[in-house]
Design a protein that fits this description.
This protein is α/β, with parallel strands linked by helices. The chain has 11 helices and 14 strands. Strand 13 and strand 14 form a beta hairpin. 42% of the residues are buried.
């Protein structure tokens, strides 16, 4: 099963200021702010939802095809993804723009000042999925992840016109989309991914009820935070899967992307929806125990020991055959 993952590719530049932003502002001079903060820590992290999901799938050995746009500064990031089992051949490289970048400074009170540069991400709308499909011998599923909004619409319409099954996953972009755009992006999706809050927002913006949306998609996959995930299909009982026990809880960024990576890998393996959701929850747990969306290491024996503890020997035997 060949899965293409479309979505943003970005780097995060995260800095720490040891003081308090609030102490640096002069109340009657806020109309003419000119400040520079001397920071004492810088972390550069690989990110972007498309790259995060593809990385997780690569860790599980399912060889995803990453589809997105980056800049000429992508070489090191590409090498990292290639080493971790991601097919990056279909990443478009901009001739003029840098890879998307998030630059954020956090103070001692955990207040943040940040900027997001879209950069080359805006060129994702120029990528044609037919070219990707022709190169790899066809696509069985395309995940439409958060990306340039025009790219998300174009990829969705192309999947429909070419009869390629697709999964809708708006995540961060749902805040800027209107109801009509969301209706276009989800109608006919084989899978609709969201968290619990986004689920309500989708219903509010589209004006469609939960039942109406279930009638328009194949499966609705809703992550529930620490309570796990619910997978629904019209006319069937929902599947609910809990999360494995955490060894520690360090940073939640990228947890949703890791779940999708595990779930999609389960689809590639053909292990069924419950098992796929369990794999997704296990991978998400590894990410919450790590600082950085692609900094975790998947050690097979450790993964399977924890998976067995959480879901039992029968489930583990079914997954182990593919993971090993």
């Amino acid at each position: 099963m060949r899965i293409a993952v479309t979505g943003s590719i970005a780097t995060d530049h995260l800095m720490t200021f040891p003081g308090r932003f609030a102490d640096q502002f002069v109340a009657d001079q806020l109309h003419t702010v000119s400040l520079s903060f001397l920071v004492d820590k810088l972390d550069v992290r690989r990110g972007g939802v498309g790259a995060n999901i593809a990385f997780g799938m690569g860790q599980l050995g399912t060889r995803p095809i990453l589809v997105g746009a980056a800049g000429a500064d992508f070489d090191d990031y590409r090498a990292w993804l290639d080493r971790h089992g991601v097919d990056t051949t279909s990443v478009r490289i901009s001739e003029t723009l840098h890879t998307a970048r998030f630059v954020c400074t956090t103070d001692a009170d955990h207040n943040q000042i940040g900027s997001f540069y879209t950069g080359a991400m805006s060129e994702a709308r120029l990528i044609e999925l037919k070219t990707v499909a022709d190169r790899v011998g066809g696509l069985d599923l395309v995940l439409i992840g958060a990306d340039d909004p025009e790219a998300m619409l174009r990829h969705t319409e192309e999947c429909r016109s070419r009869d390629i099954p697709f999964a809708a996953d708006f995540s961060q972009q749902i805040a800027r989309m209107n109801g009509e755009e969301i209706r276009i992006l989800l109608d006919g999706a084989a899978y609709l991914f969201s968290n619990e809050y986004e689920k309500g927002l989708i219903e509010s913006k589209t004006g469609w009820s939960d039942e109406e949306i279930l009638g328009k998609v194949g499966h609705r996959v809703t992550t529930l935070g620490a309570r796990g995930v619910r997978v629904e299909r019209a006319g069937e009982d929902p599947i609910e899967v809990g999360c494995p026990e955490e060894e520690r809880k360090l940073e939640p960024t990228g947890v949703g992307d890791a779940f999708r990576a595990g779930f999609l890998s389960g689809l590639v393996w053909g292990v069924g929806l419950e098992r796929a959701a369990q794999v997704g929850c296990m991978l998400a747990t590894l990410v919450i125990e790590t600082v950085g969306t692609q900094e975790y290491a998947l050690r097979r024996a450790h993964f399977m020991d924890r998976f067995t503890k959480a879901y039992g020997h029968d489930a583990a035997d079914e997954v182990r055959a593919h993971l090993s």
